[in-house]
Each structure stands twice: as structure tokens, then as C-alpha cells.
Structure to design on (843 residues):
């Protein structure tokens, strides 16, 4: 069940309810259009040739046989892409080396991972395209691959990118390396902090590369017109991000590209980057301006699209005899994949942030390896970091003889405390969430029994604001047409409409939402960073305020008063003895100036961070190492839950993904860097039979950074699960697992090692 | 004077000081002021005429959308932090 602990103000009429979702009927009837559902006259189908090697130099590519194959209309290689200089470009909040981004679309000089795209073909159908792609001859000089960050950091490691130098905030190393960046956060005096500790725990952890695992594979269709105008339909988390990336890669003006949003079958961060879109544009242009569609197979998705980093993390924590943390130190080494850009920076932001610790040092390393270039995955880097830190927190609390939640309450952050980077928190809800966890029936229930254990972990995610736009027009019957730019992943078109309805004090059924293409709404960043209900909802709130101003002017015009004399409450405009309902006034727009429309864009400068606490009971079979999840409760500060069922769904989804990461999921490569489990039989994700119903408790500590107190909710629920499960396994069998996934084989091996 | 929190990787330039005071009405003015006392700081924080990619500036707890041009008050706190947008 979902339980809501309300500390926020009452009085909302729409926010806090769970109305019918606006995308519900289309999705349950199968009528919703997804990325692969685009069918245009003269449509060509594309195929991509991918590298069979993890690391190789491209000596030559011969496309002549493919180009001559009957039915083939276009063949492209990296030579068809503009050659971009190695330069960091800001795309949204992300900093991307544009040359690397281009080389990830089509390899130019080297292939850097198994599945790296080398060439693409457009043909009259998919069979012809596949057959022609297989005729492309690529002459490779195969090089030794580097698949592990420790090996990649060795002095004699094969180098992936000859020009790469270690960046250290504006400085660069002098020699070739696979270490793209060293980052550092530090406060206080770490040596002094550990001297003050009565108990110190230090452990090393490793985690495997895992995939976001969205159900819908990538798909993109492009139509280039003879005048160069480009239209793209694709499966993406952000249409404007696609526009910006395609413009950067193909050197096109932004105004020449229109990206049309479609429904999306999951993204979790993995559909912010482009893969197929530039290829579809190139092929459309080269095939005489015919539309071209490309779709990925599951194997393509797993082998060649953004997984998240495997990592090696060491954590050392010290506390005094009373249980107060005195010092924390961590080194995080994250796989970036083929090109720089792992989420090690955000992992550093996550790792110790739930706690007040006077002396902290965190080193982070971004390391390239011969695996696919990593992409964001739901609280990027956070799950790995929390697995390490929260395991050590658990061990430290045990050594001190303290209840794990009591230990966290003793050390937890609250308003006014500073993060390691020095920035002070506004109002946050970690302590309230911990107290709610202590009070749950789950935590108060008796210990679960033999070979069973209960684990707890906390998690932080900073969330994000970003740019969002919305516009709305009042219709003559009093309904509202809302247009916004956020791709709807978690039902956000409804949660955004609810904030407009709340502002206008009207029923949610009054507002209908359309998600617009990039030519039809102001720039709106993608659905990532737990930002959409927060920021696009804020834009809708601003639109609502403007509509009220516009309608008050109409009422004033009708009644011969000034707008300042008109009040609006409960859906009724009033001035003296005059009054008129919202719908009544809407019917009077014709004759008083025509339609009332408003638009707004926002770019918040702060946003409420999120905290989560998870409790899990497991049972471990000591013979087989199999772990069963017996009971799971997720708690989270949502600020104000706009649509509580959606919030609970995010919490359950994050927990489910985190459990998969904890127990099953990993990319398995052979020694040559070939991915061996590029399908969903061998890449084991949890299914409904693996999980109990995940109970949720929504805590509401309003964010001061949003008109309705909203905090982002989508990411933080994936931060604690791996640590919570590891801590539960320890309580069940007395062994601390330090490697993800905690698969049956690893558990049996750990038990055997303990017996020895 | 405003308080500027120096990123850990740049504290070798400030003799190990984590927080320093600076004068100026914008983030860039603060950096220029600091560069006179701690030479090299500007080159590490500023790339050409913009804040170095991957960095955000936080003034009094709010992300400075104007970056180097962000106004700074006499008692402001200024932090340079990594940009993080999420998944």
C-alpha cells in the first residue's frame, strides 16, 4: 500500500489526487504511437554495420558491393559526417566533446567497443538493408582491448584515445592516458578526523556495468526535404536535446531541424543521447530525400547504447564512541566506456551527502575502457556510490552497537548543513524520512528468522531544474488546451496539467495536454534529472497566473471596472455585485478581445533535493546462494506529491531496478571484449515473480524552491536498493558482499570463504 | 567582501585555504580580484570568456544562471561546483 506522511500545508484541490491519466486510453488500447510506429510514403529502412572487435584501427572501408546491391539507396560511413574538432560543447547542462560524440555515431579511425557503428545502409526494405550492410568490407587492425578500470590505469595499458590527457579542473596531464579526469572534493582535515575516531571501517567494492533496460528499443525516422529542412521522429527523453545534438554533429542550424515527440517505452537516462538520429538524416539526404527509418534490435541496444558505469570504490569511515561520524574518505573509479564522461562527478555528490561529517576527502576518476560509451542512468552513479558508503555505514553502526536508523538519525543532514562542496541545504526531509522508516510496521516487525535478514539504506539525489516551457489557450467552453515540451515518461502530462488546474482552481478534467514538437513550444530540456513535474509544472503554474491576469482584464472590460477590482476564487470572477464563472467568462472572450492565451518559460536556480530510505527483508538459500526478497518498503521525501500514485510508481520502479542491479544484472564480456549476454534471457532483469509488492511511504516536506513545494522524485529511489539488499544479506548469513551483482555464485563463494 | 569557496583541486593556488574573501560585484570580478592574489586561479576557472565547461557557479545557494556575470553582493557566498543534470 501507499501511505503518505503529510507535513505540507493542506488546501490543494487538484494536487495530491490521482485522476485518470491523460495517456491511459491510448496506451491500454495499443493506439499510442511509439518511435517505430512512423510509416511515411516512400519510407526506406536502414541497417547499421557494427564492429565485431572491442578495439581496432580501421584501415579501410569498402562500401562498393553494398552500394551496388539491388534496392540499396544510400550507404554512409564516417566520411559522410563533418569532421569536428576536439572541443567541449555545452549541450544543455552536459559538457560533450563534439568529436567524440560524432565518432560514437560512426567510428572514424578506430572502433572502441564491440558493437561500435561503422557504416549504415538505407534500402527498400530491412532485409535488403541487412544483406547490403553485410557486404561492407572493413579492414581492421585488431588491438588489445582494455576492459577493466584498474587495467586501464596501469602504466603499460593500451591507450584508447591517443590525444586524451587527464583533466584536473582546467589543468591537463602531459602524457597519453586512459584516465580522462581526476576530480576532488575535500573539506576539513581527513587525518585529524580519523584520529578522532573510536571505530574505523574501510572496505573496497566493485560493481558491474549494467544497462537501463528500457522495454522499447531505440528507433528514429528522418525526412530531409530538398531545401534541407529536417524532420525527425524518434524515441527520446528530450526532443530539444536531439535537435541540439543532431545540429552539432551535422553542423546544421537549430531552426533547420524539427523533432517530433512520440510516446516512449522507457528511457531511465539512456534516451538522452542520439545514436540513430544523425544516421537517419544522413541516409535520407543521400538517398534523394526519402524518409529513412532505423530501429535497433535488443542486441544492438545492449551492445551499443549507453549502459552505466561499472566501478571500483573504496570507502573509509570513522566515528567516535558516541556514534558521531568524524571522517570519511572515498576513491571512486568509474568506467566511462569508450569516451570520457562517466557519472563519477554525480557519484561523488551522492556518496556521503546524507551525513554531517566534519572531515571528508573524495577522489573521483573517469576512465575510458573498451565498452560502450556510458550514458545517464537514473541518479547516475548514485547506486554504486551508495552501495559502498551505506554498506560501510551499516557496518559502522553495528560495530558501535547502534540501530542502523538511529545511527543515521544521529548523523543525518538537515537544513543549513553544508555538502562537501560547501553549498548549504535549504529545507530537506531526510530526518523526517528516517523517522517515518522507524515507525513503519515493516521496521517494527520481528526480525525475519534463520537465513533471513533485514537491511536498511539511505540515499540522496540532488535533482535538477533546467529549462521548461508551456503555453495554454482558454477555449470558449471554459476548457483549457495546454501545450508543453516535456516528453511524457512517467505520466507527466497529467501531473503538469494538474498544476495548471490547481493554479486556475478548476477541475483537472478542464485541462487537456499536448506535447509539442520543437517548432511549436519554447525550449524544454529533456525528461531527466527528476525535473519534469518540477520545472514544466512550474511553467504551467506561471501560465495559469498569466491566464488569470488576462481573464481578469476581460471581466473588467465587461463590467466597466479595472482589472485590479476583479477577484478570482473557486473558479468564479467577482467584482462588487458582479460575478461570472470561469466558463461563463470564457464564453465572452469573443467580443472582448478574442482568445486568451499565455505562455511561460522557467529556468529555476534551485531545486529541492530528494532523500530516500529503503527497508528490505531477504532470505538467502545457503546451498544455492539464491536471494529472495521477502518484503520491501521504500520511503521518500517527495516535497509535495502532485500525483501520489505516480510518485509511488517511481519509488517502486526505482526499487525494482535497484534490486536487479543488486542481485542479477551485469554485462559479461569475454577476454576480447565481446559482449556475451546481449539479450534478456542472459542479461537477467527482475520480473514480477522475483519481487514482492513494494510498499511505499511518501513523506512530504515541501521544497521552498517550488510554488507548490514539489521535489523531483524519479531518481533517488534507485540509490539505496543495492546497499539495503547487501545489508540484509549480511544480517541473513553474516557475510558482507562487496561486489555487484550479489549473484548466487558470489554468495556461495563468500560463504565458502567464510567457512575456511 | 564576498566569501569564495575554492574547489579542492585549486587550493594549491591559495596556499591551502578553502575559503577566501574577494571584492567585486560579479562572479568574474571576484575571480579577477582573486587572480591578482592567487595567480593562475582565473585560468583554471575561466575558459576564454566563459566559465569552464562542466562547472556551475552557486551564489547564496542559487545556481547563477548568468554564470560569470552573475551579480554578487557584499556578503555573498560563492561556490564553484560540478554541473549535474541526472538521468
Amino acid at each position: 500500500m501507499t501511505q503518505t506522511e503529510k507535513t505540507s500545508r493542506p488546501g490543494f484541490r487538484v494536487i495530491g489526487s490521482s485522476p485518470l491519466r491523460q495517456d491511459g486510453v491510448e496506451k491500454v488500447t495499443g493506439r499510442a504511437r511509439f518511435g517505430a510506429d512512423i510509416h511515411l510514403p516512400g519510407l526506406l529502412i536502414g541497417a547499421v554495420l557494427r564492429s565485431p572487435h572491442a578495439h581496432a584501427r580501421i584501415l579501410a572501408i569498402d562500401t562498393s558491393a553494398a552500394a551496388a546491391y539491388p534496392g540499396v539507396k544510400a550507404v554512409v560511413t564516417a566520411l559522410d559526417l563533418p569532421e569536428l574538432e576536439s572541443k567541449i560543447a555545452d549541450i544543455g547542462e552536459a559538457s560533450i566533446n563534439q568529436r567524440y560524440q560524432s565518432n560514437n555515431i560512426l567510428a572514424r579511425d578506430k572502433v572502441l567497443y564491440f558493437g561500435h557503428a561503422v557504416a549504415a545502409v538505407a534500402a527498400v526494405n530491412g532485409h535488403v538493408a541487412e544483406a547490403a550492410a553485410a557486404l561492407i568490407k572493413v579492414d581492421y587492425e585488431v588491438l588489445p582491448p582494455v576492459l577493466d578500470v584498474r587495467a586501464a590505469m596501469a602504466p603499460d595499458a593500451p591507450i584508447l584515445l591517443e590525444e586524451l590527457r587527464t583533466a584536473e579542473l582546467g589543468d591537463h596531464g602531459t602524457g597519453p592516458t586512459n584516465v580522462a579526469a581526476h576530480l576532488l572534493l575535500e573539506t576539513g582535515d581527513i587525518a585529524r578526523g580519523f584520529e578522532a575516531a573510536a571505530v574505523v571501517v574501510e572496505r573496497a567494492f566493485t560493481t558491474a556495468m549494467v544497462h537501463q533496460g528500457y522495454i522499447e528499443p531505440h528507433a528514429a525516422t528522418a525526412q530531409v526535404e530538398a531545401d534541407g529542412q529536417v524532420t525527425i521522429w524518434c524515441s527520446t527523453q528530450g526532443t530539444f536535446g536531439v535537435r541540439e545534438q543532431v545540429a552539432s554533429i551535422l553542423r546544421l542550424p537549430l531552426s533547420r531541424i524539427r523533432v517530433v515527440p512520440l510516446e516512449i517505452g522507457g528511457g531511465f537516462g539512456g534516451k538522452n543521447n542520439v545514436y540513430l538520429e544523425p544516421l537517419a538524416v544522413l541516409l535520407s539526404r543521400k538517398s534523394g530525400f526519402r524518409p529513412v527509418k532505423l530501429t535497433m534490435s535488443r542486441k544492438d541496444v545492449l551492445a551499443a547504447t549507453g549502459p552505466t558505469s561499472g566501478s571500483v570504490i573504496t570507502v573509509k569511515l570513522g566515528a567516535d564512541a558516541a556514534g558521531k561520524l568524524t571522517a570519511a574518505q572515498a576513491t571512486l573509479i568509474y568506467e566511462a566506456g569508450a569516451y570520457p564522461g562517466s557519472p563519477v562527478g554525480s557519484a561523488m555528490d551522492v556518496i556521503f551527502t546524507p551525513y554531517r561529517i566534519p572531515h571528508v576527502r573524495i577522489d573521483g576518476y573517469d576512465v575510458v575502457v573498451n565498452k560502450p560509451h556510458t550514458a545517464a542512468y537514473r541518479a547516475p552513479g548514485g547506486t554504486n556510490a551508495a552501495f559502498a558508503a551505506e554498506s560501510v555505514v551499516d557496518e559502522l553502526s553495528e560495530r558501535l552497537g547502534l540501530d542502523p536508523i538511529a545511527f543515521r538519525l544521529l548523523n543525518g543532514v538537515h537544513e543549513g548543513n553544508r555538502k562537501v562542496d560547501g553549498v548549504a541545504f535549504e529545507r530537506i526531509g531526510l530526518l523526517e524520512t528516517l523517522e517515518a522508516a522507524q515507525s513503519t510496521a515493516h521496521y517494527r516487525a520481528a526480525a525475519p528468522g534463520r537465513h533471513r535478514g533485514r537491511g536498511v539504506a539511505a540515499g540522496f539525489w540532488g535533482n535538477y531544474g533546467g529549462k521548461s516551457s508551456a503555453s495554454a489557450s482558454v477555449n470558449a467552453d471554459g476548457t483549457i488546451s495546454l501545450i508543453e515540451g516535456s516528453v511524457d515518461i512517467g505520466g507527466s502530462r497529467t501531473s503538469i496539467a494538474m498544476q495548471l488546474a490547481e493554479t486556475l482552481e478548476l477541475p483537472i478534467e478542464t485541462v487537456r495536454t499536448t506535447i509539442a514538437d520543437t517548432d511549436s513550444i519554447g525550449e524544454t530540456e529533456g525528461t531527466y534529472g527528476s525535473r519534469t513535474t518540477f520545472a514544466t509544472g512550474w511553467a504551467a503554474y506561471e501560465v495559469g497566473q498569466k491566464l488569470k491576469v488576462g481573464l481578469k482584464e476581460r471581466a473588467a472590460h465587461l463590467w466597466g471596472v479595472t482589472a485590479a477590482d476583479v477577484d478570482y476564487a473557486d473558479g468564479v470572477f467577482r467584482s462588487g455585485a458582479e460575478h461570472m464563472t470561469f466558463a461563463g467568462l470564457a464564453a465572452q472572450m469573443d467580443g472582448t478581445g478574442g482568445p486568451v492565451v499565455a505562455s511561460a518559460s522557467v529556468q529555476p536556480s534551485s531545486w529541492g533535493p530528494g532523500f530516500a530510505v529503503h527497508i528490505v527483508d531477504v532470505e538467502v538459500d545457503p546451498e544455492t546462494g539464491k536471494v529472495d526478497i521477502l518484503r520491501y518498503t521504500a520511503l521518500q521525501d517527495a516535497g509535495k506529491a502532485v500525483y501520489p500514485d505516480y510518485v509511488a510508481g517511481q519509488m517502486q520502479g526505482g526499487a525494482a531496478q535497484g534490486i536487479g542491479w543488486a542481485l542479477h544484472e551485469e554485462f559479461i564480456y569475454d577476454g576480447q571484449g565481446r559482449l556475451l549476454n546481449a539479450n534478456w534471457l542472459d542479461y537477467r532483469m527482475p520480473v514480477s515473480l522475483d519481487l514482492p509488492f513494494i510498499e511505499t511511504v511518501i513523506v512530504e516536506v515541501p521544497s521552498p524552491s517550488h510554488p507548490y513545494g514539489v521535489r523531483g522524485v524519479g531518481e533517488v529511489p534507485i540509490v539505496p536498493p543495492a546497499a539495503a539488499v547487501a545489508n540484509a544479506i549480511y544480517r541473513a548469513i553474516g557475510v558482507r558482499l562487496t561486489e555487484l551483482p550479489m549473484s548466487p555464485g558470489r554468495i556461495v563463494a563468500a560463504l565458502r570463504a567464510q567457512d575456511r | 567582501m564576498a566569501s569564495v569557496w575554492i574547489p579542492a583541486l585549486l587550493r594549491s593556488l591559495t596556499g591551502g585555504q578553502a575559503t577566501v574573501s574577494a571584492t567585486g560585484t560579479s562572479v568574474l570580478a571576484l575571480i579577477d580580484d582573486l587572480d591578482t592574489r592567487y595567480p593562475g586561479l582565473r585560468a583554471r576557472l575561466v575558459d576564454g570568456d566563459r566559465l569552464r565547461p562542466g562547472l556551475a557557479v552557486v551564489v547564496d545557494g542559487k545556481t547563477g544562471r548568468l554564470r560569470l556575470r552573475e551579480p554578487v553582493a557584499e556578503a555573498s557566498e560563492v561556490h564553484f561546483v560540478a554541473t549535474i543534470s541526472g538521468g
